[in-house]
Design brief:
2 helices, globular
């Protein structure tokens, strides 16, 4: 049986301090980093549930900052 699907390459998170001066535009606020990052790659891993779980409003906010079809 053969199955096919999409492979998405993205990044593991978006809140890395070194990226403030290398990936993000100058003077981009922390609040706008997710919006910017979701327009640079097709997917971002939320790698934070090891430390705690997120509440539904957080996911809703993140989804609102990402374009349609973003994973």
């Amino acid at each position: 049986m053969t199955q096919s699907g999409k492979i998405r390459a993205g990044m593991g998170g978006w809140t890395f301090e070194p990226w403030d001066t290398s990936f993000y535009p100058d003077k981009l606020s922390k609040a706008k980093q997710l919006h910017y990052a979701t327009r640079q790659v097709p997917s971002i891993e939320v790698n934070g549930t090891y430390y705690s779980s997120f509440k539904e409003p957080t996911f809703v906010k993140w989804a609102g900052e990402a374009p349609d079809g973003f994973v």
